Amino acid sequence: MKKGINDSTELPEVNIKSSLGAFLKKQAQKIKEHQFTCPFCREALHGISAFGRHLKKHCT
């Protein structure tokens, strides 16, 4: 059990894990659909995919 930020009550570990899982699923879906709100993330992921295409063409 972990303590909450603003109170002294303890948060159940299940809620923390489920909220993290929901966040990761949401972000993964955004990546699949190419819907990025952060320009840095957009540029980083486009760069990663371009590098992957380069390696695929170059190394195969």
Keywords:
single chain; 60 residues; mainly alpha; two-stranded antiparallel ribbon; 2 helices; 2 strands; 70% helix; 7% strand; elongated
Structure notes:
It is a single chain. The chain is elongated. The protein is mainly α and 60 residues long. The protein is built from two helices and two strands, in the order E-E-H-H. It has a domain of 25 residues.
Beta-strand percent range:
5-15%
Shape: elongated
Distance between the termini: 49 Å
Count the E strands.
2
Short description:
Helices cover 70% and strands 7% of the residues. It has 60 residues and is mostly helical.
Show the helix and strand layout:
Elements: E1 2-3, E2 10-11, H1 13-33, H2 39-59
Antiparallel strand pairs: 1-2
